[in-house]
Amino acid sequence: MIRTEKLTKTYNNFRAVDELDLKVEAGELFGFLGPNGAGKTTTIRMLTTLTRPTGGEAWINEFNVSTQKFRAKQAFGVVQQHVSLDRELTVWESMELHARLHHIARAERRRRISELLDYVDLAGHYRNIVDELSGGMKRRLMIARALLHRPRLLFLDEPTVGLDAQVRRRLWDLIRRMNLDGATVFLTTHYIEEAEALCGRVGIIHQGKLIALDRPQELRRKVGMVAVETVSDGKGSDYRYFADRETAGAYVRTLPREVRTLVMRDSNLEDVFIELTGRKVKE
Ligand SMILES: Nc1ncnc2c1ncn2[C@@H]1O[C@H](COP(=O)(O)OP(=O)(O)O)[C@@H](O)[C@H]1O
Ligand SMILES: [Mg+2]
Description:
The protein is of the alpha/beta class. It has two domains: about 1-215, Rossmann fold (3-Layer(aba) Sandwich), CATH 3.40.50.300; about 225-265. The chain contains ten helices and 13 strands. It has helices at about 40-45, 70-75, 90-100, 105-120, 135-145, 165-180, 190-200, 215-225, 245-255, 270-275; strands at about 1-10, 15-25, 30-35, 55-60, 65, 75-80, 155, 185-190, 200-205, 210-215, 225-230, 235-240, 260-265. The strands form three sheets. A six-stranded mixed sheet has the order 6-7-8-3-9-10, with helices on both faces. The protein has a four-stranded antiparallel sheet with strand order 2-1-4-5, with helices on one face. A hairpin with a 2-residue loop joins strand 4 (about 55-60) and strand 5. The structure holds adenosine-5'-diphosphate (ADP) and magnesium ion.
């Protein structure tokens, strides 16, 4: 569904995306995880034909994003990172406007709009002014709008950024449901929990480069399934990783008394990121 070969975007001499090689199959719920500035939005903008690659190539549904723009565009819907809605319209009008842009015929428009508002749980709000919706509702409206032309692939750029935990979970449910209903989903996030909770496969991007790509479980396994965090006087935290609790326990028993805090826990994608880059995802 998505394929890139050495996809690159350079601004002056700065490589925002650096020779990205990626394949996402139809039906996947794929996560692109990385800290702010890693190159996630730039990647989405190239894949959705909003900005031209300066190197390499990309295909959506086998259509080249540079030379077969129009056909590539029919295959996907996109929800941008920043809320982009006409604030003074009603929910219905916003959908209507977008459906017209896609040249969807009148009767079909009505049917799809009510079906989609129902799908994202906004049916009861169709007369509300967009500006008065909560953050979570705005996101759901943007998703409904992106689905109007029935794309097989949906790009979601940081879909839950700035939303509180409960609203975020509700959006996760919607994203899972869309994927179960057949949509391929490519989402970006800088939230570890989001990538772990939602994604079948995760690509980790750091300074424009793809530094890991696998199922969350496999990424963890490579680092070690169990993490031991220690804090000693006068030193920062230290992380060590082990294949299992037994070997982690054996290590803990060798630790000197000065070690003050000690946590043994399952590893996560944050640990994977730290191991690969020496940094935390959110710094
Ligand atoms: N139009 C632009 N001109 C110059 N630099 C840019 C532009 N867009 C993005 N960048 C830079 O490219 C890098 C990646 O940005 P972005 O793709 O937005 O990262 P992310 O979405 O992962 O936070 C950042 O360092 C950013 O400042
Ligand atoms: Mg971004």
